[in-house]
Design brief:
Blueprint lengths: L1 H20 L5 H27 L7 H8 L1 H4 L4 H14 L31 H10 L1 H19 L6 H29 L4 H27 L19 H8 L1 E2 L5 H6 L6 H6 L8 H14 L5 E2 L3 H17 L1
Parallel strand pairs: 1-2
Helix pairs in contact: 1-2, 1-8, 2-3, 2-9, 5-7, 6-9, 6-14, 7-8, 8-9
This protein binds zinc ion (ZN).
């Protein structure tokens, strides 16, 4: 975790510092450096802050608290992520109206229980564009929208937390744009529109990578979308529910496992979110064997490419029926 955190933080900061202080004038180099920072941003999200906010980065709670702050470095907010991801997504995985990860905006349909519109017929073609907006959306607007929604739902009952969360939005998001927009405009000879385009390019890449990785865990043909019974209860055991609704991919690819913060092993992550992702590869054979013994699903969708194709097919399927 320490090596990965160091690499990801350097990957995020070194290229943008080179942009600011490097006195370069090459446009491809500008885009390349922003791309590297974008990869670092995705790496911080998947490999550092995700574990830290689950309190699984370290057994020391102060280290978890410190590393959880890394979400602020990438322009988002710890408390908003904790509610959407740890509380809503992990407790109510793939349950319509509760898991916000499958509550897509109108043009996208991620659940067989949500209303189907004519436009969804083409979502397998245009979904990727919206995926690429995900990171920018978190930085610019989603935290604000979620803040007011969660406040209304009573999910942020503490007034002090509400105030500090909102002030933290303003501070960290401003710093993000100072570093990636204002300073490059100020210190380099690139035209303003070129810096804006490079920043957008970086955000598109970060958004696309992270959205695809998260989507391939749950929006798949072999993932279930259980509904509550008339008393509002999910009839399965929570662990069984996690096995039914979650999928793994890239099982044999050690680099993908390392670079994507263990999110290739989402089954193990969903069963044991409080265990650091570095252990998932060791846990996986035990989980798979146990699932087999109890005749429960263990959804493994093969390589990254194969899982991506299956996600594409699932988008197409959800668009037509
Ligand atoms: Zn998680």
């Amino acid at each position: 975790m320490v090596v990965k955190s160091t690499i990801m933080l350097l990957l995020y900061y070194v290229p943008i510092c080179l942009v600011i202080f490097g006195s370069f004038s090459s446009v491809p180099l500008l885009f390349f450096l922003y791309l590297l920072s974008g990869l670092g941003m995705a790496g911080i999200g998947m490999g550092i802050m995700h574990d830290a906010i689950h309190e699984s980065y370290s057994s020391n709670k102060w280290i978890n608290k410190l590393m959880a702050q890394s979400i602020h470095l990438i322009g988002s907010n710890r408390e908003m992520w904790r509610i959407q991801h740890n509380v809503l997504h992990h407790s109510f995985t793939n349950i319509q109206e509760h898991d916000e990860d499958i509550n897509a905006p109108g043009v996208l349909r991620f659940s067989p229980h949500s209303e189907r519109k004519k436009i969804h017929k083409y979502q397998h073609l245009y979904a990727w564009f919206f995926y690429s907006l995900m990171s920018l959306n978190w930085v610019l607007s989603k935290d604000f929208v979620n803040f007011f929604r969660y406040k209304k739902k009573g999910l942020i009952p503490n007034k002090k937390v509400r105030i500090t969360t909102f002030l933290s939005f303003i501070l960290w998001k401003t710093l993000f744009f100072v570093l990636f927009l204002i300073l490059p405009i100020w210190f380099t000879s690139y035209p303003v529109y070129m810096i804006v385009l490079a920043l957008l390019f970086m955000q598109f890449v970060t958004g696309l990578i992270t959205a695809i990785v998260f989507q391939m865990a749950h929006v798949m043909e072999n993932a279930a979308y259980p509904l509550p019974n008339t008393s509002g209860e999910i009839e399965n055991d929570w662990l069984v529910h996690q096995l039914q609704t979650t999928c793994n991919f890239s099982g044999k690819n050690n680099f993908a496992f390392w670079a994507l913060g263990g999110l290739t092993n989402q089954i193990e992550h969903h069963l044991f979110p409080n265990i650091s992702h570095v252990h998932y590869k060791n846990i996986a054979p035990i989980v798979e064997q146990t699932a087999k013994e109890f005749n429960l699903p263990y959804n493994n969708n093969g390589s990254f490419g194969s899982a991506l194709y299956q996600h594409f097919r699932m988008l197409k399927l959800l668009g037509v029926k």
